[in-house]
Amino acid sequence: MKALVYTGPHTMRYRDEPEPAAGPGEVVIEVDAVGICGSDLHAFHGRDPRRVPPLILGHELAGTIVAGQGAGRRVTVNPLITCGACDYCRTGRDNLCARKTMIGMTRSGGFADRLAIPAACVIDLPPGMDARAAALTEPAATGLHALNLGMRALARPLPEARTLVIGAGAVGLLTALLARAYGCRDVTVGETNALRRASAARSGDLHVYDPATQRGPDADSVDLVIDAVGAKATRTAALAAVKPGGVVVHIGLMDWASEIDMRKLTLAEITLIGTYTYSMADLRAAVQALQSGVYGALDWVEERSLAEGAGAFSDLDGGHCGAAKILLRPEHAA
Question: Most buried among 47, 127, 197, 219, using CB within 10 Å?
């Protein structure tokens, strides 16, 4: 089969790879569409020690089971492979399982014609669901999980809150669009990439600005801040913007350590929430939301062939792409 393989920093090779074989309790999925995630870019830069080359990256996908239980079913997947037995797994917080592994990290992922994955990770798609929408399930679930955590901590209902989302990549944009769908009337998105900023402005009733050159929300003025970037500068901006008693939800992991304004966090009773991925319930909810059109037309998604994947990584790395998400299509699905 063909696959796009991460072979070293800044190097992706489209080449022949062995066909995957389903182990006990596993299925083989023929991939229809697979998204490039920010974490795939971290690996591309050589900044993720968990992703060791050579490795087939990719964990945001939709396809069809072609071997194993349920052959013929159209599915998306939970890329986290959890133990199913620990306290976290048994209470529905499987994203916190200490024994979890992940496709595209500890085993081959979805930048390929086919991949093998445990059948327990499979999520059925509604009849007729488009592969473009279905492949957004994972980033949509990440934003849904984060927004739900933030809403639980707010002092007032979300429709009464002023919300700031920092970053208009797929997770940030999907989170902002979901906040609007949940009834939030004031959603602002900060994005430094001009192409992505224009794409976000076309995507919904959002206030969009450039944090590098334009003034954003005033200090101490925002009820809920969602940092979908996770850099030192965005953490600083999030803590500056949030109002006393407000909530900051931290999703992104661009930089792994920095100082934050602990004095404001304490004196203003700010709630700071770290959020990681999603649960199976979040993924199923994201499928339903995508199928029902909650996120709009999704015309900000760009599709390319898997064979063009190396160029897509280069374009994303250089900031030359305005799409919040690039989906790659294997030759059979193009």
Answer: 197
Closest CA to 309 of 71, 79, 2: 2
Task: Give residue 74's pLDDT.
Answer: 98
Residue 114 has a pLDDT of 98
Instruction: Say yes or no: 185 and 236 in one domain.
Output: yes
Is the distance from CB of 240 to CB of 261 less than 8 angstroms?
yes
Neighbours of 293 (CB within 10 A): 11
Which backbone phi and psi does 194 adopt, to 5 degrees? -60, -40
Hey, is 266 helix, strand or coil? helix
Residue 88 lies in a domain: yes
Residues 63, 179 within the same domain? no
Q: H helices within the chain, ranges in order?
A: 38-44, 87-90, 131-134, 137-153, 170-181, 194-203, 232-241, 262-267, 280-291, 309-317
Task: Tell whether 78 and 59 lie within a shared domain.
Answer: yes
Instruction: For residue 107, give its domain range.
Output: 2-136+298-333
- DSSP summary character for residue 50: T
Environment class of residue 281 by beta-carbon count within 10 Å: exposed (0-12), middle (13-18) or buried (19+)? middle
Q: Is the pTM of this model over 0.70?
A: yes
Q: Are residues 22 and 129 in the same domain?
A: yes
For the chain, which residues score pLDDT lower than 50?
A: none
Report residue 134 as tokens.
């279905």
The amino acid occupying position 213 is T
The tally of domains found in the chain comes to: 2
DSSP letter string over 201-238? HHHSS-EEE-TTTS--SPTT-EEEEEESS--HHHHHHH
Q: Are residues 131 and 148 in the same domain?
A: no
Q: What is the pLDDT of residues 173-227, one digit of tens each?
A: 999 999 999 999 999 999 999 999 999 999 888 999 999 999 999 999 999 999 9
**Run of H or E including 101:** strand 101-102
